[in-house]
Structure formats: structure tokens, C-alpha cells
From TrEMBL:
Belongs to the PPR family. P subfamily. Keywords: Repeat. This is Pentacotripeptide-repeat region of PRORP domain-containing protein. One of its GO terms (molecular function) is mRNA binding. It comes from Lupinus angustifolius (Narrow-leaved blue lupine). SUPFAM superfamilies: HCP-like (SSF81901). The lineage of its organism: Eukaryota, Viridiplantae, Streptophyta, Embryophyta, Tracheophyta. InterPro entries: PPR_rpt (IPR002885), TPR-like_helical_dom_sf (IPR011990). The keyword Protein transport does not apply. PPR repeats lie at residues 6-40, 41-75, 76-110, 111-145, 146-180, 181-215, 216-250, 251-285, 286-320, 321-355, 356-390, 391-425, 426-459. PROSITE patterns: PPR (PS51375). GO terms for cellular component: chloroplast. The keyword Repeat applies.
Amino acid sequence: MRINPDNFTLNILLNCYCHLDKMDYAFSVLAKILKLGYEPNTITFNALINGLCLSGDIKKALQFHDTVIGLGYRLNAITYGTLINGLCKIGQTEAATQLLRKIESKVMKPNVVMYNTIIDSLCKDKLITRALHLYSEMVVKGISPDIVTYSSLMYGLCIVGRLKEATDLLSDMAMKNIDPNIYTFNTLVDAFFKEGRVTEATSLLAVMIKAGVKPDVVTYNSLIDGYCLVNEVSKAKHVFSTMPQMGATPNVQSYSILINGYCKLKMVGEAMNLFKEMQRKSITPNTVTYNSLIDGLCKSGRLSHAWKLLDEMHDRGQPANVITYNSLLDTLCKNHQLDEATALLKKIEDQGIQPNVYTYTVLIHWLCNVGRVETAKQVFQHFLIKGYHPNVRICNVMIWGLCKEDSFDEALALKSKMEENHCLPDAVTFETIILALLEKNKNEDAEKLLSEMIARGLL
């Protein structure tokens, strides 16, 4: 049509390629911009830097930034906010903080978005003291914190159990005329319920409603979860039942939480009724739903029903995970079906599902319990060959099995090996070996270990 594209057209195209993770095409558009004699602008550079960050190539984004600056172009707050966000997303919070310092000393005054990004990342990493220091720094420098700042800090304080300080931030927000939003209240309500502090959680809920913030499905899910955690499942069911009247429709999480609550109390019949209700309402159960039910069925001795549910998972295309199989393996072991449990471990590995330390610990414990210590040793050796890092629990179980068979040299060798693998023996390790030695009248060896135990401060 003989209409020449201009800088706007080319920037739009370049930005599209960046969002499609087609960075080679995006840079070819930059070449086209230069070829046509247009001047790339901040929008062009920001799109390319954002594209590199979105594709996870932060190193290239930083190198490109340096090249652009070297060519004499000036970049803006959006550029640096993008780079800081990219660094935080890959866990490079320290590098993001260093970039913030560099911007402050050489380029421009950092803004609230840059600070918020780093504070949020620090809070998620549980580095709350550093996050609070950065918050204080913002205030001193005249950068006003906003709802995002406070929400991040509240979340960080909650996950490290500092609930009093998290709640105190509500007062700070009120002084600065910042209204808490649904996310702010949900964070606090959920934290109090998870700590079993039901009275304070419900008081916060009342404050939330009084402030004109309408509870949503996340709020009600926290409420249901909180009641289930303190075994008040009837109250949880009442909240669940009244949700539609309050304008919130129960979702898959609502059902999964309540199903898990019922299963923990061995009320598997009620859990199954809820599961059927989900299917009637076309709410697709997820892996968490199935795992709760399978675990509940296993613990109530209905193993055949659990296997049927596993088959249903596969038929529905819902992937089972290591938690699913751990419930089944644990039950097989408790029923002394150890050959079947060992076969299940192999099946898990063949399916590409990585067993965890708990999987191996359970199997080794029960093999030792029935005197099959040689098989337990093979499983433990297989565990080590697979590259797993043993914890003190699995080592103690293996040591207990070896002591049952009077294999004291092997037990002591494993105790020594624990330290080589930076897995320090605990009081249980020593007590297991000492008691076994005393039973066999090996008093001198037992006394040596007792002295070592005292020297380590474990007694």
C-alpha cells in the first residue's frame, strides 16, 4: 500500500515480539528502525529490556542496558523498575539492592515501585529485618509507602510469626490515610487462623467488614481452614454452607480444605459426600483433593477404595504426586505388605515421580521392624546412589535396624558418615546405639558413647 512504517508502528511490532518471547525477531525490528534512519527511543529500549527479563535472560538485559547507556542514551524509571523486578524474580535480591544504590547515586531518585519490588522479594525470602530497614529508609528519604509496601511487609511478618507487628502496621496505614484492601486483610486473617488464634482472626474479620471490605472466597477459605486446624469441622462446614448467601461461591480450594478437615478426623464418609457434590457441580477436583481423600481412605483401612481413587485420578488426567504415593506406601507397610511397598517405590521411580526422604524412611523403618534389615540396607544404599541427602531421621531409622541385628560396627560407621554428610547425630542417634549396646552387655562401648553424648551437650 506504499505506506512506510514509522517509529510508532515498529515499536508496537517490536513490543509484540518481546511479549511472545521472540527476542531475535524483536532485535531484527530494532535493526530495521536504525536502517530506516529512525531514532530508537526509551519505549524501544524498555520493551527490549522487558522482553529479555520476561525470557529469564537478566544477564543479557543488564548488558544491553550498559550498551545503551554507553551509546549516550538516557533511560527512565520504568527501565530500572523492570531490571530490579527481573533480578528479584530470579532470586538475585542482593543484586537488585545494589542496582537501587547505583541508580540513586548516579541516575535518579528511586521510586516507590523499585523499593516495593525489593521489599516484596525480601519478605518472600523471610528476610524481614532487611525489608523493614528498607521501608524505614524509604520513609526517611521522603518516598511514601503505599498499599503494596504494607501488604508485602504484613505478609513477611506473618510468615515468620510476628503477627503483633503485622497488625500494628494497620495503625500506620490509618495514620497515612491508606485504606487496607482485601489482600491486606486476607493475609492477616489467614495468618491468625494458621496459628490457631481463632478469636483474633474473627475479630479481624469484623474489623474488615466494618471497614467496608467485603470478604471474598479467599477469606472464607481461610476461615474454613482455621476451624479445621483446631478440629472444629462443624463450624467449618457452617461457613462453607453459608458462603453462597454471603456472595461467595465455594471453589475447588474450599472443597479441598473441608475434605481434608473431615479426613483428618477420620470422617471419610462426609469427605466422600463432599467429593461427590463437587462432581455434581462440575467442580474439577485437583491433586490436593485426591491426596486428602486417598490419605483419609488409607488411614481408615479402606485401601482398595484408595487404589480406585488413584485409577480415577489417572483416568481424569489428574497427575498423582509423591504425596499421593506416600499415603499408599505407608499403608502397605503398616499392613506388612512390604514386597508390594517395595514394588510401588520402583513404580514411582519408573513413572518419573521423584520419591522424597519420607518415602524411603517409611519403607526402611518397616523393613527393619520385621527383621528384613538386609533389604533395608539395599534400599538405603539405593537412596544414597540416587543422590539424595540423608537427614537425621532416615539415618536414625537405619541405625536402629542395624542395632536390632547387633551390627554395631555398621551402626557406628553410619553415625560417623552422618557427620561427613553434614547431618549431625542427635540425642536419638546416641540413645539408640547406647541402649542396644547395654542390652548386649557391651557396657564399656556404651560408656564411651555416653561420654561423647555429654561432651556434645546432647544430655
